[in-house]
Predict the structure.
Amino acid sequence: MPKPRADATSPKTRHSAGNAWNRVILHTCERMVEIPDHAVHLAVVAPPFTNDKDRRTLDKEHYIAFLQRVFVELDRVTHPLGTLVTINTDLRDHARYNRGQREYDGLLWHKHSDICRIAAVAGFACFHTKIWAKSLKTGVYRLTYSHVQLFRRPNLAQRLAARPPVPGFAPDVWLLPGGSHRRLRGGGFFRDAIHPLIAARCIAQFTRPGDLVLAPFAGSGTIPAVAHIMDRTWMAYETDKSLLPLIRQSVYGPVRPPVFATSALDIALLAHHSSHARS
Ligand SMILES: C[S@@+](CC[C@H](N)C(=O)[O-])C[C@H]1O[C@@H](n2cnc3c(N)ncnc32)[C@H](O)[C@@H]1O
């Protein structure tokens, strides 16, 4: 496992109980040594497609073992009343993405089921699943929808499910088109982003202003950006240093990626709604 290497990137670091929050840390989230036990109120987890160095192939056994390490660490850092949200796109299965592991071959890898099992072993119970529909068209390579799975400690799952929903949260299918691509400065696109309204709805539903939101896989910085807009503290981890300019742009602008402009009113409404105390 790579040795942790901290890199503070934020001009607006906030201190809480001696810890510096609002930072992107450039090392693997398998060991989030910068975060004390039980500090996180909400973790929004959008794992990479592969953890393989070539970024093209996938060894599922290694990948599952990797996610297991991440979830054990998420168990450590998450508050007993905290919430874990995973966002995952199941994959059309193919030997190329599978390093020849034939036992996994099939039409589809139901990765969300494995994530549910991994989370359960780490001590989290799935209490709800939403579908993020990115488009109503059919994708050839990837599915055009993702699973948004909500987890909590088993004894708290029911209590949370009974909470009144914030605007947009109640439906089981969230049709949010156009949210997964971000333009990179040197040309090209980052294609694996989540729609900001997924983060906004979860932050409004499960946290209060000042709570700590964690993005173990920062990517383009959607989760820190929405946490920042909604006045939450945040921490993010990312192994790809080249994404830092995009993350900074998402969090601090001055001009955020276009999807933030189209979501701005909804995010503001959710921020206002959640500024009232929620237990
Ligand atoms: C699906 S993307 C996250 C997208 C993000 N939620 C967004 O909206 O932009 C996954 C990210 O995880 C990063 N990553 C891969 N392995 C990692 C690790 N071990 N620790 C932290 N980040 C990692 C990848 O570089 C990639 O940017």
About this structure: The first helix runs from residue 60 to 77. Residues 1-17 have pLDDT under 50 and may be disordered.
